[in-house]
Fold this sequence. Notes:
The structure holds two protein chains of two kinds. By secondary structure, chain A is mainly alpha-helical. Chain A has one domain. Chain A is 61% helix and 0% strand. Chain A contains 16 helices and no strands. In chain A, helix 1 (21-43) packs antiparallel against helix 10. Chain A is globular and about 75 Å long. By secondary structure, chain B is an alpha/beta fold. Chain B has helices at 2-7, 128-138, 150-154, 178-185, 187-201, 215-225, 249-257, 277-289, 319-325, 382-386, 393-402, 405-410, 421-425, 432-446, and strands at residues 10-11, 34-35, 41-45, 55-56, 63-64, 69-72, 81-82, 87-96, 102-110, 164-169, 205-211, 235-240, 272-276, 295-301, 309-314, 335-338, 345-347, 360-364. In chain B, the strands form four sheets. Chain B has a six-stranded mixed β-sheet, with helices on one face. In chain B, a hairpin with a 6-residue loop joins strand 16 (335-338) and strand 17 (345-347). Chain B is globular, with a radius of gyration of 22 Å. Chain B starts with a helix and ends with a helix. Classes of the chains: A mainly alpha, B alpha/beta. At the A-B interface, helix 1 of A face strand 16, strand 17, helix 13 and helix 14 of B. The complex binds iron/sulfur cluster (SF4) (2 copies). One iron/sulfur cluster (SF4) is lined by residues 377-383, 393-394, 425-428, 430, 432 of chain B. One iron/sulfur cluster (SF4) binds at residues 377-383, 393-394, 425-428, 430, 432 of chain B.
Amino acid sequence: MEENKKLVVSASPHAKSSATVRGIMLDVIIALIPAAFAGVTVFGLRAALVMAVCIGCCLLCEFLARKVMKRSNTLGDLSAVVTGLLLAFNLPVKTPLWICAIGSFVAIVVVKQFFGGIGHNFANPAITARIVLLVSFASALTNFTAPTVGGADAVSTATPLASLSKITLAGGVGTQLSDLIAEGQIPALLKMFLGVRPGCIGETCALALLLGAAYLLIRGVIKITIPAAYLLTFTCFMLIASGFDLTYTAYELLSGGLLLGAFFMATDYTTSPINTAGKVVFGVGCGVLTAVIRLYCSLPEGVSYSILLMNIACPLIEKLTAPKYFGFIKKKKEKKAGDAA
Amino acid sequence: MSKLRADAILKAVARGRGGVQVAHNKRTADNEIVRMPIPATVVLPMQQHIGAPCKPLVKAGDHVDVGQVIGDTDQFLSVPIHASVSGTVKSVADITLANGRIAPAVTIESDGLQTLHESVVPPVVHTKEDLVKAIRASGLVGLGGAGFPSFVKLTVKDDKPIDTLIVNAAECEPYITVDYRECIENSWDIMTSVYTLGELYGFKHIIIAVEDNKPEAIRILKSIADKDIHTGNVVRVMALKSRYPQGAEKMMVLSATGRKVPQGKLPADVGCIVMNVASVAFVARYLKTGKPLTSRSVTVSGDCIKNPANVRVHIGTSMQEIIDFCGGFTEPPAKILSGGPMMGAAIVDTHVPLLKSNNAVLAFSEKALAKKPASDCIRCGRCHAACPMGLIPTQIEKYAVLGDAETLSTLGTSVCMECGSCAYSCPAGKPLVQYMRLAKEVMRQAGVK
Lengths: 341, 449
Ligand code: SF4
Ligand code: SF4
């Protein structure tokens, strides 16, 4: 009897998988590392500084916010690191460091902790912070520099996406595009793929982003559903809008923060639907919105805005696409039978 | 038809969603079932099954023989309780069961003679109705863990024709190996039962379903099924992919027949009877000897047990005695389970009797306990992905805490079978099964189905 005094009693199951929140976040961080390397390679060491400041500020904000709100310390789950990294990825390399700090504060304190911390935020913290910064400090946030890879100077320049938006869809998309490439306003497709182009720190290198995405998919951290729905919808939209110009569509896919958004931000657990049908609707919605914003709005980039909008619509989508559970019987029928009886 | 059978082990005809891959830990797979000596005393609670409790029919001082009915009731959903040893009734009093519930129990002091009661005679069974009556009298419940009275499953209503018998030998819970041993050691009992049931019910299909991680059981059962000349060659062995909870009744029906049991319905509603393999084997022995359910096999395992084993135990034996029979603990246990790690219950005290439905006693040390820091839900969706019933456990948790019975009902809470796949997968370490139970309680209190 004596020896049994301290038996643990808890609800089944008594076995648990090895998955933990920390482990998942660590996987995301690992998946972001190639893009971080690419960012530093393309834009120089200051990119690393921006990342460090964003991560540091996010951790600090998380720590202080939890402390002030008298809640448990959640630094260990590493989600603040992910947010910081993603925020940095969405900023131009020249962003003043104090703006990075403000962004971190918005992401962690306003968007995440004010709503209850991990799992409770209504929108993606990094994306919301970027939009807040974009609206507040428009010039700093759109001060893009040319890649410094190969020792070039960090001269300010327009992004390929801004140049692309000069193309009118009315006719001759192909010729307008080749003119822009010839003028040097838009880099060659291979350079776009490798990320040697103006843009935000972490968004340019498609190769690195795809590597990271593959890692997350293999590890089962994300499902392909949202990125696939997002990118397919976007591609279809662009193909039709450009009169099936493949090169133009490829440029659209590789520019801006589309790949970063589709694989790393739209797949954020908290702010995307849990069920498969919901994920499809969410992805399609992101694709349509991004395409519409890029093509028909004065804004050059639409990825952040579309994901934010779909984040807000997420609870509604989840409700409307509620999955049918095993052995589901239509309620109506049941009622009728009940009435008859 | 016979040609098909000669070369085929059936494969599942449909695959359910969700489920989890769990470490099998079937350490006792090669341990032959050993008989435990007759215990000095047994404690027989009056409720060892799903349904109404029995009323004690004996009083302190009475002499009882093995197989004598010591508790019964007129209620439909119930089965009698029999003395598992011969001897003297020491007391009839309330005791606390392993699950914390309090029930009256009869304590019998064994005289060591195991004299059989005069009522123990082979039943005469000519029809289905005879069989149902006999099975009720045998006290048989599902031996796979659920404890549902078996005669109810075998009761066939005319408006619900049954064409398929599924013998459930999936044994998807980790550690437990008694069903596997039953297949290996008592395969002829299983087959005899299957033939008898087949003749009485005229099943079109009899499927013995085994998970494919037990090739030896599949081989033995198939070799016997191949010799089937009794039932018109309808007995098939089916190898199911080993994935928890393959053995859950609704999953079993889906895998074996492709039919989905609707919410709130039973396998019989889609023409199936599902019986645990040990229960099936018992039927054959009972029809031959008339000896009711007074003993059963249990797996005793876990990292704290000195000599893990499969043991044939008299119902009502104290769990502590069973553990001692297996060499006791190697170190102080931190958690003891009655049943498997996925659906079994943690018990507070080992001085509780083994019930008809207990298929395992597992003891784990501190270091073997599954621990995960609990945090808030990150909405990762793993619980939904793992749920074989397609529920969204994290939402059910939310509305259970809010006490919103209506929404819980639309979310399908009642189809949850508490298999634990959701909680197993959750990276946030949420005790989701506990919330599922809370949700059902909220619905019950609000009178919502
Ligand atoms: S598995 Fe756990 S963390 Fe993930 S959605 Fe379900 S409850 Fe939330
Ligand atoms: S315990 Fe219930 S909710 Fe959880 S996986 Fe099993 S059936 Fe689904």
